[in-house]
Structures are given as structure tokens and as C-alpha cells.
Specification:
By secondary structure, this protein is of the alpha/beta class. It has four domains: about 5-70, no CATH class; about 90-180 and about 335-465, P-loop containing nucleotide triphosphate hydrolases (Rossmann fold), CATH 3.40.50; about 180-295 and about 305-325, PCRA, domain 4; about 495-559, Thrombin, subunit H, CATH 2.40.10. It is built from 18 helices and 19 strands. It has helices at about 5-15, 30-35, 65, 70, 90-100, 125-140, 155-165, 185-195, 200-205, 215-225, 235-245, 250-270, 275-285, 285-300, 300-315, 320-330, 380-395, 425; strands at about 15-20, 45, 120-125, 145-150, 170-175, 350, 360-365, 400-410, 410-415, 415-420, 435-440, 445, 475-480, 490, 510-515, 520-530, 530-540, 545, 555. Strands 5-6-4-7-8-3-11-12 form an eight-stranded mixed β-sheet, covered by helices on one side. It has a five-stranded antiparallel β-sheet with strand order 18-17-16-15-19. The radius of gyration is 28 Å and the shape is flat.
Length: about 550
Amino acid sequence: LQEKPAVLDWVHNRFSMILVDEYQDSNAAQFNLLKLLVGPACFACVVGDDDQSIYRFRGAEVRNILSFPELYSGTRTIKLEQNYRSTKHILDVANSVIKNNKGRHAKKLWTANTKGAKPNLFYVQDEQDEAMRVSNILLADKKFNESAILYRTNAQSVAFETMFKRLSIPYKVVGALQFYDREEVKDALALLFLLTNEKDEVNFKRMINKPARGIGPGALDSILSFAPQTDGSLFAMLRLAIDQNVLSAKAKAGASQFLKMFEHAKTLLGEGELVDCANFLIREAGLVDYYEELDSQNSTGKVGNLEALVNALSSYESSLDGLLQFLEQLSLDPTTLGREDPRDKEGVTLITMHNTKGLEFDRVFVAGLEEELFPGRAGESDDDIEEERRIFYVAVTRARKELYLLCARARKIWGRTSFHHPSRFLKEIDSSLVHVQGIEPGTQHAGGYQGLSSLGEKRREHQSGGATPSGWGSDGKVLIRKGFGDNAKTFTMKTVHTEADGGPLFPVGQRVYSDSYGEGEVVTVRMNGDREVIEVRFSGGRKATFISKFAQLEKIGSE
């Protein structure tokens, strides 16, 4: 059109009206195309909401819709401010935040629907407490299909997925694979499985040349040809291939690096440094660099998923036993490692805020409302912050009836606890617009929990000012409330159990209590290698599998 004036004249004569929808998501090329298409006698109408322009990472330019009245003289702006989805209380929260953006057309959503409860703002201890708080609300009425959890990055799904599996809450991950089905997570798990079993040929083949380290099919065949001379140890085969010079110089260098990497990882694990070991393996294997490059090319969050996996490991004993427990629980759980789970065809929706645009749910949980997460670490320019604020606005306005905002005091960053300030967007919400529950980080006062926490108590503070772990007192006891009731039970919880007198730690028929599941009865006991595995049937018929040595179960009716 720019190079052929005759064609441009034909377009101007052919079209007298042009309508563009979703104009807030237009990019530079589309902006310039519209300028060309609109002739002297053409009527142009663009429809869009600048407050919902959230695809800057794809090239969308919010200024396209903001500058429209200046570029086209005589523009008439029609504001469609009545909202037919959300309650007034939800819109009040959305309006109170988005009004802080300077780059926007002034407007204020309103609705005739004045019914409904105020949104809730929960200050929780960490990502596990966040997931448990959400789970309690979901289990109270079991309206799973009408509920959605919105988060800023895909890596945040793991805490919810883990908790939901423990509690048999059906869920589906929209716009992404379930956490343990993601390629980068499978790669990291392959390294961990291989660390504990040097005869694991499947995972050895997956990772020996990923990322590329010069070990192609021919070199791999040469390595495996030493199998008859070993007891099946793949690392022994590597040593023989290196020592007997059957590999090219490049393949030999790659094989040596791979072997030394695992030798050092075993040393770290032997010293009781599980998180350091996992971090070392993932980085030394080149996965972080490899997936950082893919993230930069495709605007994905694969490195964040690697970090989330290390964070998940940090909840286990920092030893070989802890790693084995983690891997065995993955193997025992039919919902992980690629096995189909029919529960996931419906249930609670887990979705990023970007993917939720255009959707709506009766009940919405907006998770991870902390600085450096939302807004993210990279979002420090004014344009970045305004984009993040628009994302918050979109997330909040997905809710029809109920809205829950969640802010954690601490989260794991590469396996280490990191404390964060509440998101600046929470500071922009007038306190009269929400029910605040929990202790805001940096304050000494809390709103009432109103029975929503399964732990049912306000956080205690150490003399140093730091919060105790979720629900735990300094005496090692935990106060547990079931559902929304007021009757509390106190148990002394044991993290690791030991076998006694050679018999089953939890025999068939033993009544037990679980923080996650409630009361139940052991129905089967079996051995998986040298480990005792039990199955417990809880109230409602739900069943769960545990490794006895690590099960956080309290015997009922036992001394």
C-alpha cells in the first residue's frame, strides 16, 4: 500500500467504514496498517478497553488506543462502563487499583448488581499455607467447577497441584501442562532419578546429550557397549569409555564433564545438602542456560519451573532419604509423570492471568500478590508497572460473585526461603473494600481468620519478629480445626517415624490422623523395596498412599 498509490486509492474508494475490535491489543504494524486504510472520507471505529491491554510482551501497544482521538480529528469516545459480570464489591476493588494508571482513558465500571460479599484479602505464611487456605474454601462447598486460581507465572501451579492431589480436589491446568509433565521439569527429574539409580538407562539416554555435549548416537552406542563388563552401572560404562579412548575428543570431554558432575552431586547429597545438590545438577547440566535461552526467545517461564521443582524438594529431609522419598511419592502418585488422571477433565481451573482474559468464574482466587512476583522482578519502569496493574485489573474482573486475594509472607526461591513485601497493588485498595484476614507482613495486628484456615489460629510471632511456620507453635504442637467448626484438636506431630520391634509401623486397622486428610484407617501394608508403603482410607472414601517412615500421621488410640 505504501509503494503502490493506485492500490491505496482503490482501497480508500472501496471501503467507507472500517471497524477494528480488540484495538487495545494492536501492535505497531497493525497501527500503521489502519493509518493507511483510513482514507479522507472513511469512517473508522475502534473498540477496545485500554485497561485490558496486557500483551505488551507480544508487541501490543496500549498507546495505539490512547492516541486514537489525537490522530483522528473529530473522534467521539463512547464509554461502555456498565459491567454485567461482577458484583459492585469486586468492581470497587478493580477500580481502586486501575485508577492509579496515568496512561488510560478515565472511566469507572459500575453495575446494577449490588449484592454479594466483600472480597477477602488473606495474608498467609507461605505457598503451602496459601494452597491450604484455598483448599479449605473449596472443600467447604465443593464448587470446584465454578472456581479458578489465577497466578502470574506457570511455576506457581506446583504448590496448588501438590495440595490438591493430597486432598483429592479435582483440577485442570489451562494453557499449560501439569507441572510434572513439563519438559524442563522432566529433564530435571531425570537427573535426580539417575543420581539415585545409576542403572536407569531411560533417564541416562534422555540427559547424556541434553543440552548437547558432543555425545551423539555413535558415542552413546560405544558407551553402552561396555555393559557386559559392568554390573549395569552407566557411570561405570562412562569411565571405561573414557579410559579406553573409544570416544572422540569432543565426546570424551562431554562424558567426563557429565561423570564429574554426578560425582560432585553425590558428595553434596552425602553431606546432607539436597537443595544445593539439585541446584548444582540443574545448573551444571546446562538446563538453566538452555531454558533461559528458550525463555528469551519464546517469552516462556521454563526456568521458573526448574526453580519451583527445587522449591518442592526443599520441603523434604535434606538427605538421600529425603530425595528418595520425593521420587518415590512421584512414582506412587498416578497423577504424575505423564499418567492420565480422569479427575483433571473438570474441576478447579488453574490458569495464568494472561490466559484468563475473556473467561469468567463464579469464584476467583488471585494468588502470589507480593513484590518481585506481582509485579515481577523485571517490572520497574513506569510502563512495566502500568502493564502489571492492568494484568491485576483483568484478573480481578474475571470474578462474578466471589474474589479472594492472597499474599504470602515468604516463598521459596531456588529452595531457600525469601521474604517479600505485599504487592503495591494491595496498598492501592482501600481497606474498607475488603475483609482482611491474617497478619500483614511488617505489622503486629491481624484481622479475624473467621475459621477459614484449617489451622484455625492466628500466627504467633517469635521474639525476633518472624512468624512461626504455618500453624506451628514453639512447643511442637499444632492446633487443627476441621472445616469451619470451632472444636479443635491438638496433636504432637512427628516428622519422621522409625520402625519398632520389626513389625509394621502402621498395621492394618490402625486409626490415624492426617493434617491434610483428617481421620482414617490403614487398609493395606506392603513393601516397596526396603520401604513400607501403606494405604489409608479417610472419611468420604478418599484413599491416600504413604511411605511409613516419612508419613506425617498421628496414631489414634495408641500410646
